[in-house]
Amino acid sequence: MRTILIIGAGRSASSLIQYLLSKSEKENLHLVIGDLSLELAQKKTNNHSNATAIALDIFDENQRKAAIENANIVISMLPAYLHIQVAKDCIIYKKHLVTASYVSDAMQELDAAAKENNLIFMNEIGLDPGIDHMSAMKVIDEIKEKGGEMILFESFCGGLVAPESDTNLWNYKFTWAPRNVVLAGQGGAAKFIQEGTYKYIPYCNLFRRTEFLQVEGYGRFEGYSNRDSLKYRSVYGLDNVLTLYRGTIRRVGFSKAWNMFVQLGMTDDSYVMEDSENMSYREFVNSFLPYHPTDSVEIKTRLILKIDQDDIMWDKLLELDLFNPNKKVGLKNATPAQILEKILTDSWTLQQDDKDMIVMYHKFGYKIHGKKEQIDSKMVCIGDDQTYTAMAKTVGLPVAMATLLILNGKITTPGVQLPIRKEVYEPILKELEEYGVVFKEQSMPYLGYNPDKEFS
Fold first, then answer.
1. Cβ atoms within 10 Å of 456's Cβ, excluding its own
2. Phi/psi zone of residue 253: left (φ > 0), alpha (ψ -120 to 50 degrees), beta?
3. Where does the Saccharopine dehydrogenase NADP binding domain lie (predicted)?
4. What φ, ψ does residue 420 adopt, rounded to 5°?
5. Topology of 2-123 in CATH?
6. Where exactly does CATH 3.30.360.10 map onto the chain?
7. What is the mean pLDDT of each run of 10 residues along the chain (456 residues)?
8. Quick one: which of 108, 120, 13 has its CA closest to 56?
9. Measured distance CA(328)–CA(331) in Å, rounded
10. What CATH topology corresponds to 131-258+352-389+437-444?
């Protein structure tokens, strides 16, 4: 049998493992699922005869190398910074590698060695990055093949709560790593290009500069800019494009409310707060406010944020129980961001019957035969339950499909790469449709950023 080693059995591995097990008889596959927690790995095998769980400590060199040496192909579902050691072992033992993470500089440095050994190191093959690349390249390639010239590309993606499970004023619950949500947008200004002009949004203004999107059947959304949209210009073959913007989708109003935390300083992860373990939620809020001999924490908060007591923004803060003097943070040596994450997790954790939702939206503007045209491409995916979430499905399925295509010799181009070639994206996008990941493409007149210019 052909052995697939899956390192990491976390939430995103559920749909990936289910898919490969469903193909295991026909494709002659045996899955070895390795995780620091043997119990978690065993749970993910579903007692299937073609799956084996092992305890795998990625820092135990002998354990790691033995597992990789015995596999035909390796899937790493570890945190991104841990992939590199796995990748180096894959070079040593001549094994293909698949990950859903961004290509790091260290991973890119292995490109020559991978090519030399005829190995495929497929990265960014999850949701975002992953399905976004594939669905974008499909349309971009189609436009270019019919003689069109790309002038605009915008891409938005968000992990949200499904409408039937949307039960709070923020219209949001954590469907992925909460820490990533709290730290979103930090680490440098957002960079993009609009109508030929370079634009930059510093973190302090990021959540007040949003774009609006309409998705039929699901209503209105907003998008705030991702950190560096420009790095995909050459990847997508869009070096001469006038507009390139990538953003994160939220429900309308989320960004304005989130900006309150940014302005207060609660998303800062650069310093530790004294005696955080014994701090109450109320004391946490008060630590960012000026001293006043008579004003309450509530009044000081409203004054500094310039909101009234009948403002929906105030109701959103109250809903989080931020001013409770009896709830303790309970985290030693915690940063503001870590404490905020703890507070939000109280309110924003998906409940047992809740479902999540992925929304992706691309806009393609192009010139053809002297005329400007536009295509909008939209995808909405709803999760099945708490195990097979929309996030697990959209991250895990492309990883699994790419793995099988590599094993079966359908993907052959060696090297460290993204899923931007036809040999990768065509079969995967087609098969994803069977699992409810369907893009609806719509042609329309080109609007750009001045929809009235044709009539002025």
1. 5
2. left
3. 4-121
4. -110, 0
5. Rossmann fold (3.40.50)
6. 131-258+352-389+437-444
7. 93 90 95 93 92 94 95 93 94 96 93 96 94 96 96 96 96 91 92 94 95 94 94 92 96 97 97 97 97 96 94 97 97 97 94 94 95 96 88 94 96 96 96 95 84 46
8. 13
9. 9
10. Dihydrodipicolinate Reductase; domain 2 (3.30.360)
Report residue 256: phi and psi, to 5°.
Answer: -60, -40
- pLDDT at site 455: 38
Which pLDDT does position 450 carry in this prediction? Answer: 63
Q: Tell me the pLDDT tens digit for each residue of 59-93.
A: 999 999 999 999 999 999 998 889 999 999 999 99
Specify the amino acid at residue 37: S
Please state, in angstroms and rounded to a whole number, the distance separating the CA atoms of residues 166 and 252.
13
Looking at the chain, the domain(s) classified CATH 3.40.50.720 span: 2-123
Instruction: Give the up-direction half-sphere exposure of residue 354: CA atoms within 13 A in the CB hemisphere.
Output: 19
Burial (0-12, 13-18, 19+ Cβ within 10 Å), 147: exposed
Backbone angles phi, psi at 5, to 5 degrees: -95, 120
Distances (CA, A) of 126 to 13, 82, 148, 243, 408: 11, 17, 29, 25, 20
Q: Under DSSP, is residue 313 helix (H, G, I), strand (E, B) or coil?
A: helix
What is the helix (H) or strand (E) element at residue 88, kind and residue range?
Answer: helix 83-92
